[in-house]
Structures are given as C-alpha cells and as structure tokens.
Amino acid sequence: METTTLIALLAAVALVAVVILSLRGERSRAGAAADMARLAETAEKLSGSQSELAGRMQQAQIGMDQRLDALTKRLGDGFSQQTEKTGETLKGIHERLAVIDAAQKNITTLSEQVVGLQDILSNKQARGAFGEIQLQDLVSAVLPPSAYTWQATLGNNKVADCLILLPNPPGSIAIDAKFPLESYQALRDATDNTARTKAGRAFSADVLGHVRDIADKYIVAGETAESALMFLPSEAVYAELHANFRAVIEESFRKRVWIVSPTTLWATLNTVRAILKDVRMREQAGLIQIEVQKMLDDLGRLDTRVGNLQRHFDQAARDIGDIRTSTDKVTRRGTRIEEMQLGDEQPAEALALPPDRLEEAG
Questions:
Q1: What is the spatial distance between Cα 73 and Cα 79, in angstroms, rounded to a whole number?
Q2: Sequence ranges of the domains in the chain
C-alpha cells in the first residue's frame, strides 16, 4: 500500500512539473533544460528511495512473519500443555468421584447394617442370640474345645448358655449371655433429672432381677461352682453399672454373680485357661514321677555295668602287666644267649645266671 502511495506522489510531482513547464513556456530553453535535469535527478533519487524502502518493507514483513510463527508456536504449545494438564485434572476428578461413590456405597451398606443391628438389639430373643455369638467367639478363641460346652442342661433342668468345665474345686461355671437393654436405652434417652432418676431405678431393678435369676438357675450345689457369670456384650452398659450403680454391683457380689464385659471376660477366660493347665500338670505329676523313677533305676543299672566294665579293664591291665614282665624276661635271656660266642668252649656254668640275677629273673 505504501508503494502505491509513493507512485501516486511521483505522478503528482510529474504533473506539477508539466504544469510549471507549460506556465513557464516563455522561459528560455536553457532554464527549462536545467529544470528537467533537476526533475530527472529528483525522480532518480525518489526511485532509489523507493527501492530501499521496498527492501526494508520486505525485511520487516519477513521479521513480522517469523514473530507471528514463533507466537503461534508458543500459543500452540501452551494450549497443548494446558489441554494435557486439564485432562490430567479431569482424570483425577473422575478417580476421586469414583472413590466418593465407593465410599457412599460403603456408608449406605454400613447404614443398613446399623439399622439391622438396631433391629437385633430391639428384640430380646435376637439380642440374646447376638450376645451368645459374641460369647462363643470369645470362649472359643481362648479355651480348648474340651473346656466348655454350649447350651448345657443342669440338674435342675435349666439350660445355661455356656458351661465352663472346671474340676472341683471350684467346679463348672455357668455363663448367661442375656442382658437388659430397654431400660438402659431409656436411661440414655432421659433429658431431665426426673426422667433420668426414673430410668435409673428401672435399669437397676432389671439388672438386679437378672442377677437373681442367674443365681437361682445356674448356681447348683454339688454340680456347679458357687458362682456364675453374667455376660454383657456392651462395654457401655458395663461402664454405666460400675460408674453409677454401685449398689447393683455389690448385690451381684453377694449373690456371687460376677458381671463381665467382653474385656473382663477375656481376662477371666485366660485365668481359667491357666487353672486348667495347672490341673493337667497335677494330673500328669504321678506319671512323671513314675517315669523319673524308671529313669533312676536305669541309671543305677548303668552304674553297675560301668563298674563291672571297670573291673574287667583293671584285670586286663594287670594281665597285660604280667605278660609284659614275661616278655621282658624272655628278651633278656635271648640277649644273653646272643652275646655268647658259640664257637668258644665255655663251661655250662657260664650259661647259668649268678644267684643275684636269678633272683631278679624270678
């Protein structure tokens, strides 16, 4: 566009020159020729300037194109990196959403299980079964199968949830797995002192009634131990009793009904296991003594045989000594015979030993 403007400018200049020449036609031809020369020189200079300007414009266009290409490349790379980062971010968001969905499903499942547990605990029979299952898990995890029995029928036709088989004394111990929950729930839900006092009395009465039932049903003279266990499958109920109902605990002590939670039952069962192990050791003590006595008898016989062998060794040593003495005599006699000169005539007396040597030769 600048080149076109320059050409138009040149044309205008030329037109002005023609007009000037026409207006000055009366001037001398020498002045006109000088003017034409100057115009030609000016036109030549304008042409050179035009060429130089065109070159600079071309270089500027090339630089502009290069800058535009570089800018386009940077923008493209930036868009690519941003797209990649955006994709990774979206991928991470999808993964987190998947984790959230899984957690939501787990929460839903857990909510259903909690509702099921509430249904179990709200029903007395189901609650008793729940306590029995927890009791079975604890007992079977600590004691050997021969140390307990389930649903044992006693001599009074009462059925204990579990009977720990111990020798007399102390005797077998019955465990009951049922526990009062309604009054405890009412105690927790009480909002004022009056409601809490009323619920506390009901809770205390329920627990004491259950303690008396266990003492009457599962403590049988001559058949069971003088005490029984009341298993509470809830640490919260156990803690509430010991914290705020000391009279109930003391009454259970008098009735010899020991109230236990999962934690204290575990400790009790480990104590029972130690007692059973000690009983088995005492039962095996007689057999161990018999085996030790047999081992001592074997050691006595071994000592006698070693003594006999020692005597044989001593006799053999003496016999070897005697043999050694005889061989020494024979050797000495052979040496004397060898020293004799058989070619010389010597009297027979020379062959005889002197008396002192005879005594040595024995």
A1: 10
A2: 126-281
Contacts of residue 115, Cβ cutoff 8 Å, sequence gap at least 6: none
Tokens of 287: 């057999």
- Please determine, for residue 115, whether its predicted confidence score (pLDDT) is greater than 60: no
- Hey, how many other C-beta atoms are within 10 angstroms of the C-beta on 304? 10
Question: Alpha-carbon torsion 194, 200, 203, 204, what sign?
Answer: negative
Those residues whose C-beta lies under 8 Å from the C-beta of residue 279, and which sit 6 or more positions away, are 166, 167
The pLDDT tens digits for 15-36 are 666 656 666 655 556 565 676 6
Strands (E), the chain: 148-153, 159-164, 173-176, 228-231, 257-260
- What is the rounded average pLDDT of the residues 37-50? 74
Three-state SS at 362: coil
- pLDDT mean over 111-132: 51
Write down how long the chain is. Answer: 362
* Average pLDDT for 214-231: 85
The CATH label, of 3.40.1350, 2.40.160, 3.40.50, 1.10.8, for the domain at 126-281 is 3.40.1350
Which helix (H) or strand (E) segment holds residue 181: the answer is none
* 186 CB-near residues (< 8 Å, 6+ apart): 199, 202, 203
